[in-house]
Write a structure and sequence with these properties.
The chain is mainly alpha-helical. It folds into 2 domains: 3-191 and 298-327, 3-Layer(aba) Sandwich (Rossmann fold), CATH 3.40.50; 212-293, Tyrosyl-Transfer RNA Synthetase, CATH 1.10.240.10. It has helices at 16-29, 41-45, 52-69, 85-95, 100-105, 107-115, 117-120, 129-132, 134-143, 157-174, 214-222, 243-250, 256-265, 270-296, 299-327, and strands at 3-8, 34-39, 76-80, 149-152, 182-185. Helix 10 links the parallel strand 4 (149-152) and strand 5. The protein is elongated and about 80 Å long. The protein binds iron/sulfur cluster. Residues 226-227, 230, 237, 239, 242, 244-245, 259, 263, 268, 270, 273-274 line the site of iron/sulfur cluster. The site of iron/sulfur cluster (SF4) has 14 residues, from helix 12, helix 13 and helix 14.
Length: 336
């Protein structure tokens, strides 16, 4: 069975963009692949190093969201990055194989640095060693578990390419040790926000979270962007440029054809259309939130899942690192 490595940075709760962009796909894949889901707390600290409490709280929220959304702990191993010290060790070895200029050229890192000017300066002049090097640590995450496939959004493809480069260089110097992992593009990599933005995101303030209450969902949907040409209730409109219709479609509203026809004919008002969407959304979130509630009330089960997932990932990593140390001639004696 091939191994999939996937995961998230714990910096907040999961929203519909995460769900339809990656989690739904992971839920499917977990039955066909040996699945490891990484909670990348070390990576989250690269740009949250002054807020360790935010990272810690988000780890808890993230696990609850995973389990609520259908990740099955009997099928997938959910594990915590900082509890796998071998990854930190491998990151050090890999750091000799990547030039600083190559890291600066990574388009995803460049883009992210531009978005974090308050932390890294207007021109990225205050970028930290840790942030610049996080793709190296990501390469270690993947290879330390002998990962075959990495489901990613398009923005993460350059990181997987960097991993493949590192693997090729490592194998050329120290002998065949790692396989080159492959990026698998998520079927729905980008989910639009309620405000019409191309991406749903926490920092953009346009997200519906899996754990949102009925009141929060209603408030957000009522403020969603619709066809601006529709002024009066009975004006005909174009559903293709309406975010409410976009979500009716995303959530597979069985009434979708009627929504479309009535919108075009001007026989449907936006308020009623939004109310219908609120109903569809709440119905969709109900089983997720019920599951979440169960796990919130059983913290001991959540801790057990995390401990077991982390132990499974560490056992596998230790085996890989024996091979690494042997090939790098660092195997002086057996560890006690
Ligand atoms: Fe959008 Fe519905 Fe209004 Fe049409 S009727 S513009 S689909 S909210």
């Amino acid at each position: 069975m091939k191994t999939i490595i996937t995961g998230d940075r714990p910096t907040g709760r999961l929203h519909l963009g995460h769900y339809f962009g990656s989690i739904q796909n992971r839920v499917k894949l977990q039955y066909d692949y040996d699945t490891y889901i990484l909670i990348a707390d070390v990576q989250a600290l690269t740009d949250n190093f002054e807020h360790p409490e935010k990272v810690r709280d988000s780890v808890h929220e993230l696990v609850l969201d995973y389990l609520a959304a259908g990740i099955d702990p009997k099928k997938a191993h959910i594990y915590i990055q900082s509890y796998i010290p071998e990854v930190a060790e491998l990151t050090v070895y890999f750091s000799n194989l990547v030039t600083v200029s190559r890291l600066y050229r990574n388009p995803t890192t460049k883009h992210e640095v531009g978005q974090k000017s308050e932390l890294f300066g207007e021109d990225g002049e205050s970028i930290t060693y840790g942030f610049l090097g996080y793709p190296v640590s990501q390469a270690a995450d993947i290879t330390a578990l002998d990962g075959d496939l990495v489901p990613v959004g398009e923005d993460q493809v350059p990181h997987i390419e960097q991993t493949r480069e590192i693997v090729r260089k490592f194998n050329a110097i120290y002998g065949e040790t790692f396989k080159e992992p492959e990026a698998v593009l998520s079927p729905n990599p980008r989910i639009k926000g309620l405000d019409g933005n191309d991406k749903m995101g926490k920092s953009l303030g346009n997200a519906i979270y899996l754990a949102d209450s009925e009141e929060e969902v209603s408030k957000k949907v009522m403020s969603a962007v619709t066809d601006p040409s529709k002024i009066k209730k009975d004006d005909p409109a174009n559903p293709d440029i309406c975010m409410v219709y976009y979500y009716h479609k995303l959530l597979s509203n069985p009434n979708l054809d009627t929504v479309c026809k009535e919108c075009r004919a001007g026989s449907r008002g936006c308020v009623a259309c939004k109310k219908e969407l609120i109903g569809v959304l709440l119905e969709f979130l109900k089983p997720i939130q019920e599951k979440r509630k169960y796990y919130e009330e059983h913290p001991e089960e959540v801790e057990k899942i995390l401990k077991e997932g982390t132990a499974a990932a560490r056992a596998r990593t230790k085996e890989v690192m024996k091979r690494v140390r042997k090939n790098m001639k660092l195997d002086y004696f057996d560890e006690q």
